[in-house]
Design goal:
By secondary structure, the chain is mainly alpha-helical. It is built from 15 helices and two strands.
Length: 350
């Protein structure tokens, strides 16, 4: 019985994978209980078979008188009314019964404790299974959001991300080449202005909000000139007469409306990405044994990660508390390719 319970306990302890659970205390408790039972059995066996016994029922009359100095009348009455051998035998049975009762109590405790550990593990497993199911359901919805992103004359899903990233890079290049706009600005400040244009798009009646760090007197004209240059690329593309714009030259001649803005899908995309980040943070204890984040970014292309990089740097307040997750995603880009997808790396624009 001890062996069977111990084996069951070992199996349960081996399967327990809760991050906050350690089987060390359980092993110690079970070892102590089994040791107590074994010691009690050894002591009982020693007392019954090894230790010298004085069987009162088998001593002679002389020894009996020396042990029990009674009067003749009391002596006779004692012999007649007391079964000394039975009393000795009964005392042995009492010791045996007590040991058996103690062993049974301890083994019962082990059985209940094993059941408690098993129930605890089962509850943890069910909670983990529910969490995993919810997480993969979130990923399925996110995957559908990505696949439903569509750009006319470009395509859907990952193909759309390819174009969107290089359109962002084309705007960044146009902005960077306009020395009046980029003068005195860091790569992060340029990125913020570019992302705003990339999100909202351009139109003849739309005024670009670009910060002036140098108090330029004709700043409005500089902005209008930049907008008109982008509008010229857009109109020529729609007429299939566009000159090849750097970084989106492969899409020339497809009547794509360049720089038309992407907020209509960027907003739900990033909101749902943040929802997944929040879910991972809320289940941080599970995240220690089941790393959820790779299931998200392993499906992403380098262009999608480049889009996330630019957007998150332009809107850091939206990703507050999720910086470590972003860094883990960005590490997917090999170091020798970072300059192609991260705007703040050297030679991003060549």
């Amino acid at each position: 019985m001890v062996t069977g319970l111990t084996i069951k306990t070992i199996n349960i302890l081996k399967k327990t994978d809760s991050p906050d659970y350690s089987p060390r205390k359980e092993w110690l408790l079970i070892t102590v209980i089994i040791s107590i039972i074994i010691i009690a059995i050894i002591i009982l066996w020693y007392n019954l078979y090894i230790s010298p016994r004085q069987d009162i029922a088998s001593i002679n009359a002389l020894d009996f008188d020396s042990l029990f100095p009674l009067s003749a009348e009391d002596h006779k009455e004692f012999i007649e009314n007391a079964d000394i051998h039975f009393k000795l035998h009964n005392s042995k049975l009492s010791v045996i019964s007590m040991c058996i009762a103690i062993a049974a109590a301890l083994l019962t405790y082990i059985a209940f404790h094993v059941q408690y550990v098993y129930n605890k593990r089962q509850k943890s497993d069910l909670a983990r299974e529910r969490c995993e199911n919810q997480y993969f359901h979130l990923l399925d919805i996110f995957r559908r959001i990505v696949n439903n992103i569509s750009i006319d004359n470009v395509g859907k899903g990952k193909r759309a991300f390819h174009y969107v990233f290089y359109e962002y890079k084309a705007i960044y290049n146009e902005f960077y080449q306009s020395h009046h706009l980029a003068r005195g600005k860091t790569s992060g400040e340029i990125n913020s202005d570019v992302v705003n244009i990339w999100e909202d798009g351009i139109s003849p009646d739309f005024s670009l909000e670009i910060r002036d760090k140098n108090s330029t007197s004709d700043w409005g004209k500089i902005i209008d000139s930049f907008r008109d240059r982008l509008l010229s690329h857009q109109n020529k593309s729609l007429k299939k007469s566009d000159e090849k714009v750097k970084y989106i030259a492969d899409y020339s001649g497809r009547q794509i409306k360049y720089f038309d803005g992407h907020k209509v899908w960027l907003f739900p995309y990033f909101n749902y990405l943040l929802l997944i980040f929040d879910f991972i943070s809320e289940h941080q204890s599970l995240h220690k044994t089941f790393n959820m984040l790779p299931y998200l970014y392993k499906e992403m292309t380098e262009h999608e990660i480049g889009v996330i990089y630019a957007y998150s740097k332009a809107h850091p307040e939206k990703f507050e508390g999720h910086e470590e997750k972003l860094q883990e995603i960005f590490r997917c880009i090999e170091s020798n390719n970072e300059k192609r997808y991260f705007f703040d790396k050297e030679n991003f624009i060549r």
